[in-house]
Amino acid sequence: MELTQIGNWIEAGLWGVIALWFAIAVYRSPVNATRVRCAIAAAAFAAFGVSDLIESQTGAWWRPWWLLLLKAACIAVFVALWWDRARMVKASTQARRSAAVSTGRSSATDDRTG
Q: 50, 13 in Cβ contact below 8 A?
């Protein structure tokens, strides 16, 4: 057994744990949109873990050709989910700032300070 095989198995286990975490989040989240994103993330991380198991047998991440496509697709999903999350955080931050301005509060002003 080679070190690269062991490394791929460890990576596959890590991606599997992350997939499980997202799968649990699907059932724990009260928001449907978040559930969908968590389900997509769980599937993508599970597929990425499977790709590492396949890689441990083939010895290369680009052989067979479809393994490279699978890995690229998983990474594209990860990037898309990250991008969507960043967009949501930015929109949420802007909404809070707008609400603070409309109520006469700013981040520098706090009612508790008197």
A: no
